[in-house]
Amino acid sequence: MLEIVFEDVFSFEFNVSLISDWYTNVSSQENKELGDVTIIFCSDDYLLDVNRQHLDHDYYTDIITFDYSDFPLVSGDLFISVDRVKENAIDFNVSFEHELHRVIIHGFLHLCGYFDKSEEDELLMRSKENQALSLIGL
């Protein structure tokens, strides 16, 4: 089940069923099942507080993923900074929608077991992101 929450930002139009179907499709491709996933859209400051409190990091980021997966169920919380997504969309010269979906699938891929700490892992993550984005026409 997919749940959407807005914290410290104005809510905006968001197609929950599209993302839920997308996550279900990606889960299936990864031989997993969609469990409970919550996407928390928030501000830079809100996510900075989460980063400081839970990860002891003192910097802004676009997403923090808390993984509660228990194979084969993919479950977790994705905290996404809407401010960071807007800025990254400008920096990467893509639409807000495209960047938002990239971040949304990036976090979900973490829940599926992919990482991006090494160069090799990052290349695989980008490839998986692009594959998943193509499923919804982005």
Structure explained in plain terms:
It is a single chain. This protein has 138 residues and is an alpha/beta fold. The protein has one domain (2-135): 3-Layer(aba) Sandwich (Collagenase (Catalytic Domain)). It is built from five helices and four strands, in the order βαβαββααα. It has helices spanning 16-29, 44-55, 82-91, 96-111, 119-135; strands spanning 2-7, 33-42, 63-67, 73-81. Strands 1-2-4-3 form a four-stranded mixed beta sheet, sandwiched between helices. Helix 1 links the parallel strand 1 (2-7) and strand 2 (33-42). It is globular and about 35 Å long. The mean pLDDT is 95.
Please describe the topology of this protein.
Elements: E1 2-7, H1 16-29, E2 33-42, H2 44-55, E3 63-67, E4 73-81, H3 82-91, H4 96-111, H5 119-135
Parallel strand pairs: 1-2, 2-4
Antiparallel strand pairs: 3-4
